[in-house]
Amino acid sequence: xxxxxxxxxxxxxxxxxxxxxxxxxxxxxxxxxxxxxxxxxxxxxxxxxxxxxxxxxxxxxxxxxxxxxxxxxxxxxxxxxxxxxxxxxxxxxxxxxxxxxxxxxxxxxxxxxxxxxxxxxxxxxxxxxxxxxxxxxxxxxxxxxxxxxxxxxxxxxxxxxxxxxx
Length: 166
What we know:
It comes from Corynebacterium meridianum. This is DUF664 domain-containing protein. InterPro entries: DinB-like (IPR024775), DinB/YfiT-like (IPR034660). By secondary structure, this protein is mostly helical. Helices cover about 60% and strands about 5% of the residues. The chain has a two-stranded antiparallel sheet with strand order 1-2.
C-alpha cells in the first residue's frame, strides 16, 4: 500500500467538504447555535490553523499562515492562535465574513499536507514523534489525527449550514 497516496487523498477531504458548503450569511457564519462558543467561522479557521501549526512542526517548515493568510483573513492577534483550549471570550474574537478566504486557507493547508505526505518514505510513517503519550504517537497517527480534527470541524459547519435557522 502506498501510504503517501492514501494520505494525499485523505488530506484533501476537509478542504473538499468546506468548498462544498453553501455560502453562509454573516449572522450564520458568526453565529453561535445553542449558545456554543464556536461559530462556523471559528470552526473553519480552527480546522485549518490546528492542521497548519502541527504540520509545520512535523515538517520543520513555516506555517502556511505566514504566506499572507494573517493579512488576508484579518483576524487580528486571535487569528495567530490555533484554538486549542480557547475560552469562550477567545473563540468570540474570531469573527469573519470571509468564508471564501477561510476555505481557501484550509485548501492551502490541505495541499501542504498532501505535499508533505509525498515527501515521506515508508519508514518515516512509523517514526515515534511524541512519546509523552501511551502509546507513543507515530507520525502517521499524528497526520491522521490532524485531518480527522479538520474533517470533524468542517462537518460541524455543514450541520449548522443545514439548519433551518439558528
